[in-house]
Design brief:
This protein has a 6-stranded antiparallel β-sheet. It contains 3 helices and 6 strands, in the order H-H-E-E-E-E-E-E-H. By secondary structure, it is α+β, with helices and mostly antiparallel strands.
Length: 135
């Protein structure tokens, strides 16, 4: 279910560290909020992961188009995953994960710092995946 207050509280309570992943998570969350025909779910599993999911409003072949997992390590880092069939990783930056996204082949990107070029690339892929499931 969509719960923006819970997500915003999670971001505000992020442990202090200097790797910039809190800012990246916040920016990707803000980007997701602006996409039409979608909703956001947040699944918290403290000590393991916190999962932000972009969900198409209409029912189709894909139950989500992006999953942004916060890996609860020290420091925290992000794994941003897509269904491999929904995006075109022209730059070859992602890692193919057979059966790794809800049983389907996934394409995942590890984010360990605030990298403007990577953030822009991920936003482009999020928009591409969103368009593929909301057409």
């Amino acid at each position: 279910m969509e719960n923006h207050k819970e997500i915003e509280n999670f971001i505000d309570r992020w442990p202090d560290n200097s790797n910039g992943c809190q800012a990246v998570f916040g920016r990707l969350y803000d980007f997701l909020k602006r996409l039409s025909g979608t909703r956001i779910e947040f699944h918290a599993r403290p000590g393991i992961t916190y999962s932000l999911r972009g969900i198409p409003e209409k029912t189709g072949d894909y139950p989500l188009f992006v999953m942004i997992d916060v890996i609860d390590d020290q420091p925290r880092w992000l794994s941003v995953c897509f269904y491999e069939q929904l995006v075109n990783d022209d730059e070859g930056r992602g890692d193919s994960v057979p059966g790794g996204l809800l049983g389907e082949d996934g394409l995942c990107f590890d984010v360990e710092s605030e990298d403007e070029e990577l953030i822009s690339y991920l936003q482009q892929l999020i928009a591409e995946a969103c368009e593929a499931v909301t057409e």
